[in-house]
Design a protein that fits this description.
It is a single chain. By secondary structure, this protein is an all-alpha fold. Helix content is 31%, strand content 0%. The longest helix is centred in the N-terminal third of the chain and has 12 residues. The radius of gyration is 20 Å and the shape is elongated.
């Protein structure tokens, strides 16, 4: 297997398509005749996190959002009736706020491409 040092734009597109379809680094590397470590290194090097939500879901990234019973953090009566789990603005004011991070970003494949829950996830992608 040749170990070319540079990746072309076509190679990068193939990596992205492979990740989107759920392929492993080993499968992608085999298709490109590259080393799997090189593919992993390129993915970690060029990934970027974006702050996107999910269609129809509140952009609340608090680790405690599912069990939170805190309400009334705002002076505005429109928001005082809501529990914080149904509000994205409480992330700024709540003293118990702790941001939740996706575990996929810490282990292989290091990105959300190919994740089954991507369309419903409110965490950083």
């Amino acid at each position: 297997m040749k170990n070319h040092k540079h990746l072309t734009l076509d190679d990068l597109s193939h990596i992205q398509a492979g990740l989107n379809s759920g392929k492993s680094f080993r499968q992608i590397a085999h298709d490109l005749s590259k080393d799997p470590k090189m593919i992993a290194k390129e993915v970690r090097k060029h990934r970027s996190m974006t702050h996107t939500g999910a269609y129809g879901r509140i952009l609340n990234k608090c680790l405690h959002r599912k069990a939170c019973l805190i309400s009334g953090l705002f002076n505005d009566p429109q928001y005082n009736r809501r529990y914080c789990r149904f509000c994205s603005k409480c992330n700024l004011l709540c003293s118990d706020f702790a941001q939740e991070y996706c575990l996929l970003s810490e282990k292989v494949p290091y990105v959300c491409n190919g994740c089954q829950q991507k369309t419903a996830c409110v965490l950083d992608k």
